[in-house]
Design a protein that fits this description.
six-stranded mixed beta sheet; 21% strand; three-stranded antiparallel beta sheet; 9 helices; alpha+beta; 331 residues; Trna Endonuclease, Chain: A, domain 1
């Protein structure tokens, strides 16, 4: 098996799409955005999620916390008042008992996201340390199919029809591997006309079909924001959380613009399913690898994790730092 073979071509392709979107979103012109993978709702999970952001508001969101907010924290922080207020007066009434909200207020205060105190009648009062910014502009969903033939298009049709009719995202795309061949008209007919099609190569991306702009329901505003917060928290490089980078055969190889996991033992680009605790080829890193550096820096596995985490942070900061540099240049 050659060293370019894939055990899971969709996984490697997905990482390449995420890296391209992080560097060059949007196909119609640059738009500040963050990228995540394998996110969605209880009923639908998307391969790639692109959250277009307002750079100044995103900088304020980053200053508030470098971690994403779960739905409970988001409810508390988003509605935190400027002045002291009883939490029940500040937060819209939830569809579950109020007693479940109080722990989130305490948790937010413990993270310095809000201030809290005991007010009159021993009520829990709180206020913001900084306002929660309106940082999300649009949400875009991308389904990745490197081998988009007629049968794959038919299999995707129902899922994409659901995405279009549900309109939780502002745009829906299908990304496929660039082959240089002309796309068959019959293939386009199998997909909803509202869905865009991207042809993704190692160095460039071409729009084969432009998507329609969808109109999300105002009632989904909170659900969309929860999705955006999860994208902010996770990014797209969290695949190491379910793989074995502590194996002596695990490495990252550049493929196009992305770093893709590769297995030296199996001589292939592997996936999360392939690189698991049940892998018969797993060999732990030798102890000597983990004692290089001072006092103990860890082995190559921890080093790879640090590399990916630092790249995620660098990509986040670039969203608003590029704007700051442009502003400074114009002055």
């Amino acid at each position: 098996m050659s060293d370019t073979a894939d055990r899971d071509p969709e996984f490697a392709f997905e990482l390449r799409v995420c890296r391209w979107a992080e560097r060059a979103w949007h196909p119609d012109g640059p738009r500040p955005a963050i990228v995540a993978r394998q996110l969605g709702t209880r009923n639908r999970r998307w391969d790639t999620v692109v959250v277009e952001v307002d750079p100044d508001a995103f900088a304020a969101r980053y200053a508030l916390s470098t971690d994403g907010f779960d739905s409970d924290l988001l409810r508390v922080v988003r509605h935190a008042p400027a002045d002291w207020q009883w939490y029940r007066d500040a937060i819209p009434e939830p569809d579950f008992p109020w007693r479940h909200v109080v722990p989130a207020v305490h948790r937010a205060a413990g993270l310095d996201l809000v201030e809290k105190r005991r007010g009159s009648r021993n009520r829990v009062e709180y206020k913001q340390t900084a306002p929660y910014p309106d940082w999300v502009e649009r949400i875009v969903a991308i389904e990745n199919k490197p081998n988009l033939d007629a049968s794959a298009a038919r299999a995707l049709a129902d899922q994409l029809e659901h995405d279009v009719s549900r309109a939780l995202a502002d745009e829906v795309w299908v990304a496929t591997e660039a082959t240089g061949d002309r796309v068959q008209p019959a293939l386009l007919e199998d997909l909803p006309v509202e869905v865009g099609i991207l042809s993704v190569g190692d160095e460039s991306t071409e729009v084969l079909w432009h998507p329609s702009k969808l109109t999300p329901d105002d009632a989904d505003a909170r659900r969309r924001l929860v999705l955006a917060e999860r994208a902010y928290d996770r990014g797209w490089r969290t695949y190491l959380d379910t793989m074995r980078p502590d194996c002596r055969h695990f490495e990252l190889r550049r493929r196009g613009m992305a770093l893709v996991p590769r297995c030296g033992a199996k001589d292939c680009y592997q996936s999360q399913r392939e690189c698991a605790h049940s892998c018969s080829s797993f060999e732990p890193e030798p102890p000597a690898w983990r004692t290089r550096g001072w006092p103990i820096e860890g082995g190559p596995g921890k080093g790879l994790r640090r590399i990916l985490e630092s790249r995620r942070e660098r990509a986040r900061k670039r969203v608003f730092e590029d704007i700051e540099r442009d502003d400074g240049h114009e002055m």
